[in-house]
Amino acid sequence: MHGKEVARCCILAAALMVTFTGCQTASEPADDAVSGSETILESTETPESEEKERESMQETQNDMIAEAVRQETASVDLETDDSQNAEPGEKEPTAQISDLIPTKYITRRFSECGTIETISYTTYDYFGDGSEIEKYANVYLPYGYDEQKKYNVLYLMHGIGGDENEWGMTGDTSRVKIIMDNLIYNEDIEPFIVVTPNGRSGADFANRSSDYHSFYEFGKELRNDLIPYIESHYATYGQSGENDYDMKTDRAHRAMAGLSMGGMQTINIGMCECLDIISYFGAFSAAPTSYKGEDIVKTIDTQFPDEEILYFYNICGTNDSIAYQSASTAAKELPQLSGRFKDGENYMWQELSGGHDFRIWYLGFYNFAQKVFD
Fold first, then answer.
1. Contact 256, 154 (CB under 8 A)
2. Which whole number is the average pLDDT over 105-134?
3. How confident is residue 43, by pLDDT bands cut at 50, 70 and 90?
4. Does the pTM exceed 0.85?
C-alpha cells in the first residue's frame, strides 16, 4: 500500500472512531459533558453548516466502510512455514503459536476429515420490528463426531463485508476445516465444533450492504436463538430443551472469535454482554467500533464481577490501517488495566507485519484454535 493510501486510511479510521465512542450509550453522558452549573457556550453554527458537517461525516464514514470491505475481501496468498513435512505420515503434535502456519497444518487431508453442514434456525428481526425470520449458519463437525459424546463450541464471526460464508466454511477445501482436520488428526487439540453464523441481526441479513448497526444486536440472537438451537441439535455440553437447562452452567464450553467487525462483536457482545455464558474469546483485527480497554474493564467489572475469562487472544497486523489503532486501544493494555487479564496465562496480544486481510485472520484462527478450550 502506498504512503498516500495509508495516510488516507488512517484518517478514515480516526474519523470512524470519533463517530462511535467506547461503551457509551445514548443514556450515558460523555466523559467531557458539561454539568448544569457550568456555562455552556452557544454554537455559532447555522443549521445549514451543521447539515453540511453531518453529510461530510457520513461521507467519510461510508468511505471508511468501503475501504474496510475492499481490504477485507481482497484475494491474498497465504505465507506458510515449509520447515515441517506436509506429506501424510504418523500423527505428531507439533503445532505451536507462531507467525506463520506450518504447511503441514494448511494442507488438505483426504482421510479422517471432519464435515461441514449448513443449518437454518428461527430467530427475530432484533434490529427491526422483532418479526420472526429464518437465518443460516455453517457448522463444522470434527472427524468421528459422536452423538454420545459432548463437544465444545466456537462461534466464529465474519467481517462487515461478509456473511456466514466469509470464512469459507462451505466445503472440503475450507481452510478452517483443513486447519481443524490437521490439528485434530495430529492430536494437537481436542475435537470441537465450529459455527459460522451471519452476524447481522435483522431481516435484511442477506444484504451485505444493509445497515451495519444490525451487527450490534447480535447478542440477543446469540443468547436467545443460536446457542439454544446448536445445543438442542448437536452433542454439546449444554443441552437446550432439558428442564434444568441453564446456559451459564456450561460457559466454559463456549467460545467466540471473529475478524474485523466480528472481532468487535467478540469484544462488545461476547465479552461485554455474554461473559456469563462464554469463557473464551479471540479478536482478529477488531474493528474501529470496538470498546476501549478501560470501558471493557468497567463493563465486565460492573456486569460480570465473578465470571472468569479463561482466555482472550488478540492478533492484528501492524500495517493494518483499518484496525490496528482500534484493536490496540481495545485490548493491548488490558493486563495493565485489570488483574483479570494476565499476559501469558489467560491473555495474549500478537502483532506482526501484515494488513487487514486473511493472512492475519487464518493465522489468528490457527493460533486461537490451540488456546481455546485448552
1. yes
2. 97
3. low
4. yes
- How many Cβ atoms are within 10 Å of 76's Cβ, its own excluded? 14
Q: Which three cell numbers stand for residue 197?
A: 453464523
Yes or no: say if 290 and 268 are a contact pair by the CB < 8 Å rule. yes
Cell triple for 269: 457482545
Q: Which residues of 285-313 are buried (b: 16+ CB within 10 A; e: fewer)?
A: bbbbbbbbbbbbbbbbeeebeebebbbbb
**Nine cell digits for residue 324:** 490496528
List Cα–Cα distances, 17 to 153, 158, 218, 297, 326, in angstroms.
32, 20, 21, 19, 8
Mean pLDDT in residue range 66-93? 83
Given a contact cutoff of 8 angstroms between Cβ atoms, the answer to whether 153 and 65 are in contact is no
> What are 303-335's pLDDT values in tens digits?
999 999 999 999 999 999 999 999 999 999 999
**Helix segments in the chain, DSSP class H:** 3-19, 47-73, 103-106, 175-185, 218-221, 227-233, 261-265, 293-303, 324-327, 334-337, 358-371
pLDDT at residue 45 in the model: 65
3-19 helix and 47-73 helix, angle to the nearest 10 degrees: 120
> What are the structural domains, with CATH classification, of the chain?
3-21+50-371 (3.40.50.1820)
Instruction: Look at the chain and count its residues.
Output: 374
